[in-house]
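Annotated sample (chain length 158).
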Amino acid sequence: MIAAGLRLFPDLEDMPTFMAVIFVLFGLVLVYAGFYHARLRILRRRAYAGGRERRGTVRYLKPLGEDDALAYLVFANSHSEWLMSVDTSSIRKVEGDLSEGVAARAYLGDDDKIYGLDIGKVKALPISVGEPFEGKLKERIAWAERKKAEWAERAASD
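Output written by the structure step:
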């Protein structure tokens, strides 16, 4: 993508500048996503190898639709909660109802963030790091859900 945006191919020399800039930006985003994913995989491997293990329950933050590719999960133990996103195809085989809560084990790194999550015998594939679910993050999600409900009421009344 970046090479096409920089017009390194003979067929693309007459590409408009705006399109070339879009190609370069999109290519840079893809490169960044690749590095982020590789870093997440390395940190996940470290957490499984020598991270701290926490036992608790995991549940959906919100119900899943049929075609959702991403699931937001809340892992909770006796004193903390973490929010993380996982690939839905990696948790399809989980025994139990994730909307009610299922026993799980989380593997934390040195920074108290979740990098690995085992739900029963299934290893969930994280898309993002499990962040502590408290304070401003929790308030913002609650605010967004209230606004969404208000908009739905307003749309239903119109």
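Annotation: The radius of gyration is 20 Å.
Annotation: The CA atoms of residues 72 and 85 lie 4 Å apart.
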